[in-house]
Specification:
Blueprint (H helix, E strand, L loop, with lengths): L18 H7 L30 H7 L23 H21 L4 H25 L24 H6 L2
Helix pairs in contact: 2-3, 3-4
């Protein structure tokens, strides 16, 4: 079986290639880089044991639970806050659990982080039970544990105005 090679795309001095040439050659599908392409140099800081942490409500807004990993893009710091609703409290606790879980994957012997993880898990569990007593099931799957299918009943968890009234 004979293979046909596609013609090489001709690019100008700045490596700009005409779109029609790319489509005709289909070389863009093979992952070939231009001759002068720069490769990215990623850097991920390693965390040390027992790093300081933000409170869960601040960490979810900042995008990390760990101040040492809080590296704002171009110095733009998110100083926003979550509104004081039951749902936002659960979101903050859930975020903290994911962050701490990922940290514990690489630092399993950090007993302080594990204790914080356990306390957030307990708060999340209790908060979720309280939320569902007040507002109904949090997810569609949770409605399977009800006496009847109540998922379509208002308000839904993300219905901000209705949940604000029910605080």
């Amino acid at each position: 079986m004979e293979m046909k090679l596609q013609p090489r795309v001709r690019c100008d001095e700045a490596d700009r290639c005409p779109a029609e040439s790319l489509q005709e050659s289909r070389e863009y599908q093979t992952g070939i880089l231009p001759e002068r392409a720069y490769l990215a140099n990623p850097y991920v800081p390693m965390q040390r044991n027992n790093p300081p942490t933000y409170p869960a409500r601040q960490g979810v807004v900042r995008g990390t639970l760990f101040p040492g990993l809080d590296l704002p893009y171009r110095g733009m710091v998110n100083e926003g806050t979550l509104s004081d609703t039951h749902l936002h409290e659960l979101q903050a606790l859930g975020f903290a659990l994911v962050e701490l879980g990922e940290y514990l994957d690489t630092h399993p012997k950090d007993t302080e982080a594990f204790a914080l993880f356990r306390s957030y898990a307990e708060l999340y569990h209790k908060g979720r039970q309280e939320y569902e007593k007040m507002h109904g099931p949090l997810t569609q799957k949770d409605s399977a544990m009800q006496e009847s299918y109540t998922w379509l009943n208002d308000p839904w968890p993300w219905d901000y105005a209705a949940n604000e009234e029910g605080k």
